[in-house]
Amino acid sequence: MFRKLLEILMIYSLCSAVAMSAEFTFDTKLKEVTTRPDVELVRVPFEFQNNTDEEITIVNYDAPCSCMEARMVRPDKKNSLVFAPGEKGTVIGMLEFGTFKGTIDKVIKIRTDKDKGEEPSIVLTCRVTIPVLIATSQESLRWKMRDKLEPKVFSIKVADESETPINIVEHKHGFGASDVFDYKIETVKEGREYKVTVTPLKTTEPTMAYVKFYTDSKIPRYKMVQIFLFVEHAKK
Question: What is the pTM of this model?
Answer without folding.
Answer: 0.76
